[in-house]
Amino acid sequence: MINKELKERIITSIILLSIVSLGIFIHLYLSLIVLVVISILTWREFVAIIEKINFSKKLLHEIFKILSFCYLSVFAYTSFVIIASNKLIFIYFLIVCIFSDIGGYIIGKIFGGLKLTKISPNKTISGSMGSFFFSLAPSIIIYLFFKYDSIEKLILISLWLSLICQLGDLFISYFKRLANVKNTGNILPGHGGILDRIDGIIFAIPSLILLNYFI
Description:
By secondary structure, this protein is mainly alpha-helical. Helices cover 77% and strands 0% of the residues.
């Protein structure tokens, strides 16, 4: 039986993936517009969190605002470059990230167990393992049905994306904890803000640049 929260995660993931996919396949530069809009909305949500944190030095607020704007610009640019190179590959990366997130939630809820970190009390080691395990599903499907020639490469990409997604999630959770907020916004009914949904993705996609040097 799918509970309400899991259902909301799945529905939200499908909607966001559909919006991005629609932009990608209608026109290349429409995808850029979608990426820019998502990045700006995400940045505004992060700024709202930063403004609620009582830093010892006020200058830190402005530094985090500037750095986050620059970083999300890198995310948008990197995503656009990947889309321009291969639209389906970009969709594949997104699906791996989504499966990682859902897998962590499902396995974490089923098995529970030891907490992963104090940063995010709801996250467990079993959930983290579930994220890695579920992230492999899209790669296995591609290998079996599309005859991709290297399962090892696909597995490495999946595990890498899952790892960065989880670290990105923890990074944003740390700031939410400092700001004493549960969600980054309320633009997505039942799930919070856009940043709540794509906190792992905004780190995973740019990280592929680093992975590219090793594979």
